[in-house]
Each structure stands twice: as C-alpha cells, then as structure tokens.
Specification:
seven-stranded antiparallel sheet; about 25% helix; 11 strands; 6 helices; about 260 residues; Jelly Rolls; binds 2-oxoglutaric acid
Length: about 260
C-alpha cells in the first residue's frame, strides 16, 4: 500500500493520536474553498433526502452551521474525499486500505458556537476505529474557534457525561493543545482523540471540512451510517437546548 506519509508522520500519529499535514497545492486549496462556497449556497431542504444542512442561532441571526452527506451531489468533492491523497493518508494512518465513512462541513461562521470536549468514537456506529481530518477552509486560530486536542489519550473511550461528551472531572485532568491552522492545512485525528473547540468570537468565518475514514476490511459503511443516523434522530425527536448535529451532544449551537 503506498501513501505519502513518512515513518515519522505515522509514528507521530500512533503516539499522539493526531498529525498536521499539508497535502494540497495552492491551486487545490483555492478549488476547495470555491466548492465549499458553492455547497454553502445549496438550498435548505432536509426532507428531500439529499444533503443535510443544519442551522444555529447566533447574535448575528440564523446561520448555517453544518452540511453533511454532500459527496453524492458534488463530483469534485466526491473525487477529493473518496479517493486520492486524503484516502491515501487515511490508509497510511490506519495501516490498511481506507474508505470514506462520512463527510461534513462545519461552518462556524462569525458568532458560531463551539464544541464541548469529546471523542468521536461514541457517535460513530458499526466499527471501533476511524480516522478523521479537519481540512481548514479558512485560517483557524483561538479567536475563531480552532481545534484543541489531547495527545496520547486515544487508547480508550473515556468516561462520559449524559450528552456523550467527556466527563468534566476527566476534562479537567487533560492537557489541551491548541492547533492553529492555515487554510489548506489538514489536521488528522483518531476517533478516540479528545478534542474540543471554542466559539467563533471574531468577525471572520472559520469553515472546515471533515471527512472520516474506516478500514475497508470492516465494510463500506457510509450509506449505512447516514441511514442509522437518520433513524436515531427520528426516534429522538428534535427538542433540546442545543442543535443536534451528531449522535452525541457535542455541538453547543442554539436552535433557530
Ligand atoms: O469544527 C469544530 O470546531 C469542531 C468539530 C468537532 O469536534 C466535531 O464535529 O466533532
């Protein structure tokens, strides 16, 4: 299996649970930014069975906070997220051929909310191990809510609160590392790597795209994931103090 990672990259990921990479050229980054801007303008119609847009209430009014399930409707994104360098890197990190499990864009537009400390694994059905990455579409730093990660804590699922996020007494013991990124950089993390992010308190948007991969040996589960998520959302109903974008309650956005 060929992949564009060095042994040191793989060692860093295996040891810490995360890895910062820069796999795209400037032209490719420009293209990704244009495609995200296109998807951002797609109509909001979650009954159509196509892509899913989610909104949050901010001090600047209702704003788009997430789109998922968009690769079936965008050939360029499909090619970039389901094959090519991202799939190759995911394969290198998993140590075997990877396949796309799910994809989302988190917009975190100016005024957008952050994410409580969590691991992704409790939200991901069918298999235990995934790798995801944050593809920065805009520069991200502390002022607009970049990711924070914890190193060397991806061996197991940590104790959780009633939302499926990491229990506060555990959060307080972890060493959180802020990871500022430039547009086009790609931050990889394991599905048990603890992470969180603050609200966007700046005046500029912080968009990021997150594909998640699993080992193909465990199945091509993307369609099953979205079907299962839709069933679980339907069974739960929509009431709640925060916008439900995930199968855990990590997102802190307020419903519109
Ligand atoms: O986009 C962010 O700020 C954090 C996203 C995240 O942790 C998630 O979607 O699980």
């Amino acid at each position: 299996m060929s992949h564009p990672l060095t042994d040191a990259d793989v060692e860093h990921f295996c040891r810490t649970g995360w890895l910062l990479t820069s796999p795209f050229t400037e032209i490719e980054v420009k293209q990704l930014r244009q495609w995200v801007a296109e998807i951002q303008k797609w109509e909001i119609d979650n009954e159509s069975g196509r892509w899913l847009h989610y909104q949050e209430r901010t001090e600047h009014g209702p704003k788009l906070c997430r789109t998922e399930n968009f690769t079936p409707f965008h050939q360029g994104m499909k090619a970039v997220l389901r094959s090519g360098v991202l799939c190759d890197i995911a394969s290198g990190l998993l140590g075997e051929q990877a396949v796309l499990y799910k994809e989302k864009i988190n917009y975190k537009l100016a005024g957008g909310a952050g994410y409580a400390p969590h691991q992704d694994a409790p939200a991901y059905r069918f298999v235990d191990t995934h790798v995801s990455c944050m593809i920065a579409i805009d520069d991200a730093d502390e002022s607009n809510g970049c990711l924070e990660v914890v190193s060397d804590m991806h061996a197991e699922v940590l104790p959780m609160d009633d939302k499926g996020c990491i229990a506060q007494n555990v959060v307080d013991t972890l060493v959180w590392q802020t990871v500022p990124v430039r547009a086009g950089q790609v931050l990889w993390f394991h599905s048990r790597t603890p992470h969180r992010s603050g609200a966007n308190t700046s005046t500029s948007d912080r968009r990021a795209m997150y594909p998640t991969y699993n080992a193909l040996r465990e199945g091509d589960l993307r369609e099953a994931y979205y079907a299962q998520k839709s069933d679980e959302f339907r069974a739960r109903g929509t009431s709640g103090e925060t916008v439900q974008v995930s199968l855990i309650g990590d997102f802190q956005g307020i419903p519109v």
